[in-house]
Design goal:
mainly alpha; 15 helices
Length: about 325
């Protein structure tokens, strides 16, 4: 007598191990792509196309005449060679690094100090936090114009105040090559403090109070508690603040244009202003595209760092 063997269908777990997705998993993947699809459709025409077009333009001889004739012959790496051999590009890159590092350091330290201060409850604390948000809410061009009037060497409020209290009121804040970049950094710090304060304050609110109580019972000082409890617990938030702050600061254009327009003597020329100067002042769109691509590459590197840092913290 012949015995026939009936093979039972493989369970769902076995199908997943062999790489054959089940109906439920397939529906789950389709649902995930359904949520992502609107963002992809939006990103491709409004971000993807300009990015690709900018890269292509950096290898073309693109002039105002091109807008009428459509002719933009490829010139290889001539635009890149011209930009990298220009001494102004090196100065702009160095100024960008100084401007970004100084701004991030000042914004983060001041924002963290204010966040720790407001983490203690006291009367009118919420009102004061709201008032500190005002510099962040004002458009950057408006802030730049106001600070340009404040820092004016002859009629500025700051020099007038310094002269009144006997500290000398003739400091060329925006007209001296040695002072202009520092002045722009200080103004940008003033603008960015509220963003850092709000994000760090939110992170402080999530730290369990039991940790501070345990540190107090162990006899830890305020500084030791801050170093051993607050900073480690704030590490994910600090990463977000610094990376997002970098990506927004490295490409700042409107503030510098409003304050110094890249001067004096190119003392505040950054990669952002150099892109503007090449493209819309000298009408050398190919060179402007090259500098823009450098900015995009720098931002992309830190975006990858941000994503990896978040993934590591998630694990």
């Amino acid at each position: 007598m012949t015995t026939s063997t009936v093979t039972a269908p493989a369970p769902a777990a076995s199908r997943e191990k062999t790489g054959a997705p089940g109906p439920h998993r397939l529906r789950q993947r389709l649902a995930q792509w359904g949520f992502v699809a609107p963002a992809v459709v939006f990103m491709l025409p409004f971000f993807g196309y300009p990015l690709v077009r900018n890269v292509v333009m950096s290898f073309q001889h693109y002039t105002p005449k091109t807008f009428f004739t459509g002719e933009a012959p490829f010139n290889g790496v001539d635009n890149w060679s011209h930009v990298f051999h220009d001494t102004l590009f090196g100065k702009a890159l160095w100024h960008t690094l100084l401007f970004t590092a100084g701004s991030l350091l000042g914004q983060f330290c001041a924002g963290l100090a204010l966040a720790v201060f407001f983490n203690h409850r006291f009367p009118l604390g919420g009102v004061l936090r709201s008032l500190i948000l005002l510099p962040w809410l004002v458009p950057m061009v408006v802030s730049g114009i106001v600070w340009r009037r404040i820092l004016d060497q002859d009629t500025g409020v700051l020099n007038t105040f310094l002269d009144t209290i006997g500290l000398g009121g003739h400091t060329p804040w925006l007209t001296s090559p040695h002072m202009a970049l520092l002045s722009v950094v200080l103004v940008n710090i003033w603008i960015g403090i509220p963003f850092n304060m709000v994000i760090l304050y939110g992170g402080l609110q999530e730290i369990p109070r039991e940790l501070y109580e345990a540190a107090s019972l162990d006899g830890a000082s305020a500084w030791r508690t801050f170093r051993s409890v607050t900073l480690p617990m704030l590490k994910p938030v600090i990463t977000v603040v610094l990376v997002l702050g970098f990506m927004s600061t490295v490409k700042i254009l409107d503030l510098i244009l409003a304050l110094t327009d890249g001067g004096p003597a190119d003392a505040t020329q950054t990669l952002g202003t150099l892109t503007y100067q090449n493209s819309f002042v000298q009408l050398d769109f190919g060179a402007g595209a090259v500098v823009g691509n450098v900015l995009i590459l720098i931002s992309a590197v830190f975006a990858v760092f941000y994503l990896r840092a978040n993934r590591t913290e998630g694990k």
